[in-house]
UniProtKB/TrEMBL annotation, chain B:
Belongs to the binding-protein-dependent transport system permease family. Residues 87-270 form the ABC transmembrane type-1 domain. Its main location: membrane. SUPFAM superfamilies: MetI-like. It comes from the Bacteria. NCBIfam families: PhnE (TIGR01097). Pfam families: BPD_transp_1 (PF00528). It is a multi-pass membrane protein. Keywords: Cell membrane, Membrane, Transmembrane, Transmembrane helix, Transport. This is ABC transporter permease.
Amino acid sequence: MRDVVVRYPNGVTALDGVSLDLEPGEMVAVVGLSGSGKSSMIRTLNGLVPVTSGTVEVGGHDVTAARGRALRALRGEVGMIFQSFNLAGRATVLQNVLVGRVAHAPTWRTLLGAHTAEDKAVAYEALDRVGMLDRAWHRASHLSGGQQQRVAIARALAQQPRAVLADEPVASLDPPTAHGVMADLRRVNRELGITVVVNLHLLDLAREYGTRLVGLRAGQVVYDGPAADASDRVFEDIYGRSIRPDDVLGAS
Amino acid sequence: MTSPVAAAATRPAVRAAVVPPPRPRGRWKASAGWAAVLAVTALTLAPGIGVEVDLGALARNWQNGADKVVALLQPDWAFFPRTVEPLLETLQMAVIATAVAGVLSLPLSLWAARTTNPHTALRGTVRAVLDVVRAVPDLLYAAVLVAMVGVGALPGILALVLFDVGIVVKLVSEQLEAADTGALEAARAAGGTQLQVNRSVAVPDMLPGFWTQLLYVLELNVRASSVLGLVGAGGMGLLIDAVRSFYRYDQLSLIILEILVVVLVLEAVSSAARRRLV
Ligand SMILES: Nc1ncnc2c1ncn2[C@@H]1O[C@H](COP(=O)(O)OP(=O)(O)OP(=O)(O)O)[C@@H](O)[C@H]1O
Ligand SMILES: [Mg+2]
């Protein structure tokens, strides 16, 4: 990311000159207060939010210049995980995971629902990796929050992505489930070598699971360094206030 | 623990005034809406401009009316065999029209909704055409189509299809726009084309509502197709026209009864189906 500025049509400047180099295989935790621009930053990485100025490059391709087919191919290589899971509730778990294959399938196959054996095999493998294979035929809306987020991770994995972006993936989960999902993300990062960028607002999760920590405040990077040795001081700097009990999740 | 008194004492004497953001404009719209409703109602009742509602006629002709009611209360059961064929034709027209309308409405609904069709011009065109389609009454379609393709079930079916598409697309596209867009965004983020996004995410989520609306227009079709025959568009209406012109209100009564039974059965079936869908 080079000098990225994102200004929304309503005049809010969400990112104010952000420059970052993310290395392949990193697990980057992005922290900052609500409204600091975490979601905006993660969304510029796959072109869901257009940048006002600056450039975003992913795997040697310019996201900011990409349109149409090129942009879709780029998005196909980057999985995305959302706070609210964003599954099609009335579709089955398997159908949801197969959504991760759209960039790899010709449109007519998707339209007819005629998935190739390979696509299905990839989907099953992704479900197996997050321990949800036995739920393949369940309706997504019938699963618990943690299970839905696992299915969402499987959907991202089914893309066979080079990177995964996660926007507050555990913010609507209880503590043990949150740790389970974060552990899944860490396995994705370690075992598959996939770069993971994860937005968090809980500092202990950021410290425990991130290899690198990026702190945002008012749309600017105010910290960038190893996550493990980021002290409470560092977080107080990022937040611009003292640490409060609700800034940590607590033990698993 | 601080006592309430102590807390009150430490509270600053003069609070910094909280400045609320300016209230958005457009709040007069609600009251203007009500005023318009009242004005229109008053206007339609005003003598000279509005509709003439002559309640006196009801009293003057009560004898006339009472005869008809008595006839209607005594259905002519012997007439039943002659109603079977038109009744079946009515049902066939309703089912065929619903099926065709279903096939047309599914893609049209996706095109008409903002969330599933970001292309403003295309969406506007689809909507404008459908507004026109919806504005024309089904009986008028039937009358014009009878003139175009001749007397029979075909113009009736075509009229019903137009009528149904107008309703289903309106209701389903509104349902689409009200639905959560998270899953659509996820499919877009996975690199899907708009068609792929709609097919893989929007369609599974919209189907239950879509079936519900189709069942609803099937009911409407049974009702409507019994009237379309009045202008020569097949079904029960032709028979209704005949018995009415011979003042056979006992036979008309049987026909009404049959339509009532069919509609009630349909309603029971569709509400059972709906319960399974949701
Ligand atoms: N689609 C949008 N249109 C207009 N303004 C937006 C939009 N999305 C975000 N903003 C604004 O941009 C700023 C940054 O928002 P962003 O969602 O990136 O923050 P965040 O760090 O993700 O916050 P949170 O922790 O609450 O999710 C906020 O002031 C927000 O109001
Ligand atoms: Mg956010």
